[in-house]
Amino acid sequence: xxxxxDQRATYIIHxxxxxxxxxxxxxxxxYESSLKSVSDSAEILYTYDNVIHGFSTQLTREEAESLExxxxxxxxxxxxxxxxx
Amino acid sequence: TTRSPEFLGLDKSAxxxxxxxxxxxxxxxxxxxxxxxxxxxxxxxxxxxxxxxxKGACETGTNFNASNCNRKLIGARYFARGYEATxxxxxxxxxxxxxxxxxxxxTHTASTAAGSVVEGASLFGYAAGTAxxxxxxxxxxxxxxxxxxxxxxxxxxxxxxxxxxxxxxxxSMSLGGGTSxxxxxxxxxxxxxxxEKGILVSCSAGNAGPSSYSLSNVAPWITTVGAGTLDRDFPxxxxxxxxxxxxxxxxxxxxxxxxxxxxxxxxxxxxxxTNGNLCMMDTLIPEKVAGKIVMCDRGVNARVQxxxxxxxxxxxxxxxxxxxxxxxxxxADAHLxxxxxxGQKFGDAIKSYLVSDPKPTVTILFEGxxxxxxxxxxxxAFSSRGPNxxxxxxxxxxxxxxxxxxxxxxxxxxxxxxxxxxxxxxxFNIISGTSMxxxxxxxxxxxxxxxxxxxxxxxxxxxxMTTAYVSYKNGQKLQDIATGKASTPFDHGAGHVNPVxxxxxxxxxxxxxxxxxxxLCALNYTASQINSLAxxxxxxxxxxxxxxxxxxxPSFAVNIDAAQSSSGSSVLKxxxxxxxxxxxxxxxxxxxxxxxxxxxxxxxxxxxxxxxxNEKKSYTVTFTVSSMPSNTNxxxxxxxxxxxxxxxxxxxxxWN
Lengths: 85, 656
What we know:
By secondary structure, chain A is of the alpha+beta class. Chain A has helices at 27-36, 61-68, and strands at residues 9-15, 44-48, 54-59, 73-78, 81-84. Chain B is of the alpha/beta class and 656 residues long.
């Protein structure tokens, strides 16, 4: 994503669940809506509620940066690759 | 595994650990490359019904379905959305899109932690014996998050998310990534949530040793495990034409070498490549190695691949020499040709023979398995070392456990070397790494959880740390194979795990979620960082003084600014709270200082008396340190003893 701005990469999106607007019944709807506000095509890979409040998705770098500005977004972290020891 | 149970004293103390009831209620979740369900280590004979607490599932996928699970392997899931989003759809001709283990690593770690008893296990006869996991009655739940292309954090988070819902009791993760801060590290983030649910999370410390600051998985809510050796070896001698013999190790099984000395050549002299000494793919000149034994150096490519390269070039055998970074550490491999690995010193001696003799000759003599090897354990050279690069005030690793030449279950989809050219199939394999020491501790934690269901993850880890040993029966200190000298708490943490003592530690250093939140405040985490990591709106109390020195960890890492202390001595105070988990007792403190001047340590009060179970008592340690050059380290040990129980803590003091 760093090299090619249109290239999509996976991001982990941390949300401040307590800031969910009252207009949403369920936080997953809020997550969907937040995602759609920066990308028409991006899909949620996983939604998390135990380990984090948030979700993972594939975004361009530009989309990731604009999502980071949205209300209720704590952080947009690039996916990391781990190795077996 | 074979040998680890005896080495850890589990065989002699089987009656001490519960074997029915609670022992078979504990569930170990393993995030890895999946499992090979046909492995005998997952036989469920004698196990009762699946625990009623279990909420997990046995997922269906390529070559895997619900019938592959049983009362030992009670859960199996796979997570590939992140992997496929980045690398594209899984090529199911190359890897199973299911919990099935095509690699072997996951079967090895899961069976090490909680494998059933299997008589007559071995790898080609090597390390023969009764293989068993640390917690033979515990149940296994596999979460496949690692694929040929790696382990992706979105999948890891999803697996931990699911493992928490499934109600595992212990999480074993023999994987690591870079050293990003805790709130950016998915393993640390997932582990925090698991800890809050009372799940002990055990992780590998990393194989980037012996360099300092090379640890992975250093969050305080994670149990970080380094690797040590067993008292077992697989000697294979290099016998030179000049009559000299040098010992090495090997797991080679197959056609022996002809019973005579053979021509011997150094790879660096049989290659046109600048790094021809490393025996990398297509670097050896067949005409120069055919019919000979080839000496290669470790480094860059896999050890077993070097053997395959020599064999492909027509070599009859290989002598593989350690370099400075691995020193005298001897990791054995099931090479595809007669081969042995020698330490750096012997490697250098053999090389000087090679250059001095105009017609050097050699043969390799294989001696099978030898036990009772001493000194053991020694810290493995590859085992990652402290200090903790993220929080130097938190001493890591926590402990070491067996991680060198460990036999355990293996996949039926791949040979013991893992090479595509290796068509052999084995039920058990011998491999090395902190990936192997981590599940040893995961299984031991499961044993402790069964014996003390009410203990928190922190209490279990405390018990394992304060009862770990730092010296051999003869009183000598544990050795570090990378230096040949005594190892330090930056190498072995609290020491080598000692499960029989951990069962009854006397006192524990407990930690609650609030203590961990206080730790984050002491790190000056922002509310947003704490919210990311701990999923809560939490504001550090501005009126409170949060200090890493008062974080109730079972070890001490004292950091001094060398420049500041040059003006004279500094006084640093650390407080701790001990919880009584044993009988009433009066504990007296003792301090042993293993190195150098520059530090005076005192403890107030010097006696702690406990009359009730779960009674808590606090003490303060005062370090009076004089100025020392920067990058000086000094070590000591603090012990509380009532004559029966010894509650030990390592102390590392660093002038930075």
